Amino acid sequence: MGVTFYRFSISWPRVLPDGTIGNKNQPGINYYNRLINELIANGIQPVVTLFHYDMPKTLELKGGWLNEDLIQYFSNYAYFAFETFGDRVKTWITFNEALSICQYAYGYGYLAPGILDPAKNPYICGHTILKAHALAYRLYELLFKPVQNGRCGMSMFTTWYEPGSDLPDDIAAAARALDFELGWFTNPIINGNYPKIMREYIGKKSAEEGLATSRLPSFDVQWQNALKGSSDFLGINHYTSNLVKAISGGSPGWQGDQDTVAYLDSNWESSASFWLKVVPWGFRKILNWIKNTYGNPLVLITENGFSDNSEAGLHDVRRVKYHKDYINQMLKAVIWDKCNIEGYAVWSLLDNFEWRKGYTEKFGVHLVNFSDPARIRTPKSSSYFLAKLFANHEFS
Questions:
Q1: 3-state DSSP call for residue 223?
Q2: Cα–Cα distance, 4 to 292 (Å, whole number)
């Protein structure tokens, strides 16, 4: 396809089965070494994510990301990865979509380990992950970056939130939704603390519930300093947009705390995923929001993609159009708006296991025959479209 980089994730339990550096799985380590070496031999730079939902079972039994002991366990794992692969890997991502981990695994019980406690757990999980990121980043900055000349960041899930009307309350609601979603993890690693609006709203609602302290934990000065500036680039995973309006009286938790409700325009084109509508103009808007809110940081688009089902087959013309339209909006953000965007990664290279949706939703630009033991992979129309775009650097 002519790509210059390939993003993949290391499975923590595949290399350290019980999560500790005292128990290494050499076949797993060998696999990643072969992958990295083969990529480099073909002129492709590896971009490596350390945590993409794979938790060693022994650590989950300790409470997973609800237990702050995981900060040190993750730091040890990161040290192992930097030391083992960092001579060749120059771009590291500590966490992929911390919001999704905390919301769907520890809040709404949608992903493993399936814990249902939306009022408190997501904020506890997020607090632990942010500390783990900060410690890993500072470790890399101190011990490995001067020698390996690499960089380290974090990948965020973000939707564009468009006000549902011109009413001031709905405009303010859309701004809150952006701070509660993208700002939840981005503001701490850039500015050292949660967005002010999150601290105010959750603190106020916690007091109204009779709680002595906010359900959103606070960082002391030491952690604020460790977090501030703990990113050499900002990874962005973007797929779609929502409309937002202001409400009040929601249940305690991430959605209710922000006094907003998000919804989809029925006129927007659908995909195979209920949540993913095709809204290209939202891509340019979120990139400009990042530029204007955070001082135009270096951005790497780490995920952008479209889902269909098996009926689409190899001729995935809707995916071709999705990527063409979204890339066009990204280019406008770069050329016209001067957004500082370095690269673009499609989700995904292959049809894969999409969590609770299994193999029913397809994001890949290559079709995988899952009924064949050899897992034969065949390029789709979108693969040829992207290969031509990457080669010519222009739309035909």
A1: helix
A2: 29
